[in-house]
């Protein structure tokens, strides 16, 4: 039986290699073991990237890109919506009130009803700035370590399963403090990712760390388009890696 | 003395006649082909109306990274994880903790995404239609083909959070969502997820969530081949 399975595995691996030969780099995604239904993860070639507008079951409502370097995935300008901006096809005229991203399949997700639940991270609330993990599978935690070194071993639970506003400043004066992923300046109305803070998604049953995520910016191209009251949000930029 | 014997004999005959009549009457009201529930094993019962009930079936794999693979026809799990996932032998996968479901869509459907043919690993093509705010018995027929979709995630659990700490307290399972699957052989399956707690308590609590999580209770009804009839009442 083992030999048979091994042969089948070889055949599958060979088939993948054959179909993927046009992609010059290694296409074995480190999280490909998470797939279901015959394998549904979008393979991001190492050193390459994919356009979220053309990949995945919810491509038509998703914008942004995912690139990969080894086992680290970098998401740029991720946003979901319904009407593309006429002047810039990378932007939405109408953004969704909640975004969904699927770390397991490397593409945008969804959760319209009980039949379409497909996501690991949910972005909602004010400016879609509150981040939740999918409660059916994970608990959301964090640790104040740099993304590269975070192991997800020593973590704290996200209060209420949510990470949103961290500290609020008026100019340089701290006026409020809680636990979240971003600092907000009510004078300039600019959001800044609090660092070093790495989000850790743990298996809800076993408690083992499964994913680490670091939010870089909520602005497109990771740069506010104005020094005050920037308008190019919410376009998420973040990194993730399987633990 | 002779007379007494005659009375005794007459009484005996009359009693016999009356009992005989009573027996006839009882036999007459009993249905000839009464259907009964069939107990398959401690976790599986086939009800008289054909509904299969899975009761408190233990979830064997508790990592969210693995899948438990269920066959409607076999009324049980037919595999766990990667060894079995690339076959058409299963209909519905339950992600590790048992809450998240995914029909066996072999990855062969067109227009899913660019390059999907890389993953055409099995010939299965189970699709699903979902109904909300309804009951199991209220769904009596399979919908038109256009109602069925491919999906990689189904979940009816509703998290309830502790109002003081904000932490997840437990999951509720309102029995108002019903799914209809279209299997590879064209049959339809009406399906309802009922609980993840042992004994399927009507009102879950935080204590039940901590103590009795990890036991599936759900029920389903498979249509006859070539029929869209899903009547169960």
UniProtKB/TrEMBL annotation, chain A:
<keyword id="KW-0732">Signal</keyword>
<protein>
    <recommendedName>
        <fullName>DUF4465 domain-containing protein</fullName>
    </recommendedName>
</protein>
<feature type="signal peptide">
    <location>
        <begin position="1"/>
        <end position="24"/>
    </location>
</feature>
């Amino acid at each position: 039986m083992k030999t048979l399975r091994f042969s089948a595995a070889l055949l599958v691996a060979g088939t993948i290699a054959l179909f993927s030969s046009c992609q010059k780099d290694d296409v074995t995604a480190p999280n490909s073991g998470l797939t279901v239904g015959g394998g549904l993860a979008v393979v991001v070639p190492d050193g390459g990237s994919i356009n979220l507008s053309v990949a995945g079951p919810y491509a038509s409502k998703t914008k942004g890109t995912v690139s990969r370097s080894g086992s680290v995935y970098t998401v740029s300008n991720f946003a979901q919506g319904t009407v593309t901006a006429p002047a810039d096809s990378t932007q939405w005229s109408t953004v969704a009130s909640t975004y969904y991203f699927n770390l397991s399949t490397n593409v945008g997700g969804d959760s319209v009803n009980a039949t379409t639940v497909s996501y690991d991270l949910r972005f909602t609330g004010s400016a879609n700035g509150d981040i939740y993990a999918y409660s059916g599978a994970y608990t959301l935690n964090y640790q104040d370590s740099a993304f590269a070194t975070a192991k997800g071993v020593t973590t704290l639970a996200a209060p209420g399963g949510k990470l949103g506003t961290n500290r609020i400043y008026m100019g340089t004066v701290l006026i409020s403090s809680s636990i979240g992923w971003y600092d907000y300046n009510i004078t300039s109305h600019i959001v800044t990712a609090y660092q070093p803070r790495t989000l850790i998604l743990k298996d809800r049953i076993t408690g083992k760390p499964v994913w680490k995520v670091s939010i870089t910016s909520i602005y497109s191209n990771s740069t506010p388009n104005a020094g005050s009251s920037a308008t190019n949000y919410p376009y998420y930029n973040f990194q993730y890696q399987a633990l | 003395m002779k007379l007494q014997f005659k009375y005794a004999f007459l009484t005996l005959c009359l009693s016999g006649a009356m009992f005989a009549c009573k027996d006839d009457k009882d036999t007459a009201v009993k249905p000839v082909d009464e259907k009964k529930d069939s107990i398959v094993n401690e976790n599986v019962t086939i009800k008289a109306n054909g509904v299969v009930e899975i009761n408190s079936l233990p979830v064997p794999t508790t990592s969210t990274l693995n899948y438990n693979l269920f066959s409607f026809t076999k009324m049980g799990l037919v595999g766990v994880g990667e060894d079995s996932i690339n076959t058409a032998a299963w209909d519905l996968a339950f992600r590790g903790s048992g809450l998240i479901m995914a029909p066996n869509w072999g990855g062969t459907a067109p227009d899913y995404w660019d390059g999907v043919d890389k993953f055409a690993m099995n010939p299965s093509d189970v699709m699903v239609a979902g109904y909300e705010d309804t009951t199991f018995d209220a769904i009596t027929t399979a919908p038109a083909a256009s109602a069925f979709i491919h999906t990689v995630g189904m979940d009816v659990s509703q998290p309830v959070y502790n109002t003081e700490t904000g932490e997840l307290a437990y999951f509720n399972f309102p029995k108002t969502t019903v799914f209809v699957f279209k299997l590879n052989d064209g049959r339809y399956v009406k399906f309802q997820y009922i609980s993840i707690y042992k004994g399927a308590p009507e009102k879950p609590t935080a204590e039940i969530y901590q103590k009795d999580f990890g036991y599936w209770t759900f029920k389903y009804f498979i249509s006859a081949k070539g029929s869209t009839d899903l009547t169960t009442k």
